[in-house]
Amino acid sequence: MKIIADSGSTKTDWKIVDNKTIYNLQTVGFSPYLQSGDEIYTILYSEFQKFEKTNSISLNNISQVYYYGTGCSTDEKQKIVKDALAKVFSQAQIEVEHDLLAAARALCGKNEGIAAILGTGSNSCYYDGFTIKENVDSVGYFLGDEGSGCDMGKKLIRAFIYKELPLELETDFINTYNVNKDEILNAVYHKPFPNRYLASFGLFFKKHEQHIYIRNIIINSFNEFFIHQVSRYSKHQMVPMHCTGSIGFYFQDILKEVAAQYKVQMGKNIKSPIDGLLEYHRLS
Question: 152, 205 in Cβ contact below 8 A?
């Protein structure tokens, strides 16, 4: 039996493969920048104990774990996650890779292209069909994450606090979330996972997608993504750009419009890379 996992900042999709039977599981997301190994282990152990009992499967039968996760771009951060996984899957050979490689493998397979993640956060790379050849350094949700739910959420709540939202949007924002300035600032600066909180306003964007003010925020955020990330790849106008993540998926029409302005050809656009990863590891 083997496990394939794709973990973002908000959620983790798991595929547990037992011959021809495939089990699906979804847990919270993990980040070695925001959580300790013990915290990751505690959540994993609890979730998989429940999964084991529900499906009458022994974790001791897991022989391979392929884990792709946000924040797993260095040996130090990979080790934090790998050690936590090893405590849960004690008999398994474990591989931990960055979620950007997951996106590249799921989106491009064995072909070259630009792989983009536009979800809670954002990232991108140029992939030659085998390895990541170019990657614009990510500076995280405070300084970067252009084009992501977190970035759009920052723009929205800043406009709300500065009282820049059109009256109809301000009224609906208050009715929907029932929050004030102090509560927002407390969530951003004092509570855990501010990136998830900021990205949670994505539903408000989808609800008001056709409103010119909201549409302009989305366009501006995508513009910044192309300026600071995509346009810096040497082949960005020569190979297709594929995208995964909820923001890129739900606002793909706007994303295509912005891409065209930078003469970037859009390819696949999928909500989650997990099915593509399953196929990749079946063919590998």
Answer: yes
Q: How confident is the model at residue 144 (pLDDT cuts 50, 70, 90)?
A: low
Q: What tokens were used for 272? A: 């989650």
- Domain positions in the chain are 2-102+275-283
Could you give the CA distance from residue 103 to residue 101 in angstroms, rounded to a whole number? Answer: 5
* Residue 35 banded pLDDT, cuts 50, 70, 90: confident
Distance of CA 99 to the CA centre of its chain: 8
**CATH homologous superfamily for 2-102+275-283?**
ATPase, nucleotide binding domain (3.30.420.40)
Distance (Å, rounded) from C-alpha 171 to C-alpha 211?
14
Q: Got the DSSP string for 235-255?
A: TTTTS-EEEESHHHHHTHHHH
Q: Whole-model pTM?
A: 0.79
**Cα gap 271→274, rounded to integer Å:** 9
Instruction: Say if CB 72 and CB 96 are below 8 A apart.
Output: yes
Q: Nearest CA to 75 among 66, 83, 63, 65?
A: 83
**3-state SS, residue 94:** strand
Spatial distance between the Cα atoms of 272 and 6, rounded to a whole number of angstroms: 8
